[in-house]
Amino acid sequence: xxxxxxxxxxxxxxxxxxxxxxxxxxxxxxxxxxxxxxxxxxxxxxxxxxxxxxxxxxxxxxxxxxxxxxxxxxxxxxxxxxxxxxxxxxxxxxxxxxxxxxxxxxxxx
Length: 109
Prior knowledge:
The strands form 2 sheets. Strands 2-1-3-4-7-8 form a 6-stranded mixed sheet, with helices on one face. It has a 3-stranded antiparallel sheet with strand order 5-6-9, with no helix packed on it. The chain contains 1 helix and 9 strands; from the N terminus they run βββαββββββ. Strand 7 and strand 8 form a beta hairpin. The chain is mainly beta.
């Protein structure tokens, strides 16, 4: 859903990531999946490669969901929004602040 996704920059280093284009539904963002287990290790390289971009750390089996005009955290883990040096964490059911509205919506199946 984000503008950018992060892929491995070089083998065998698993911590350095480089951006590539993603779906682009949420401008100025990049997702850090599996945030609680290993995605948090990508923060430094993501900041270096994408200065000024909002990073969205999503724990396993969790999601940031757009519903009724706002973002909400869902699932057993949490959602972490990283902007500069600030980190805000949201538990399931909480309204997520700091993410832009989607540029467009995908059609429901």
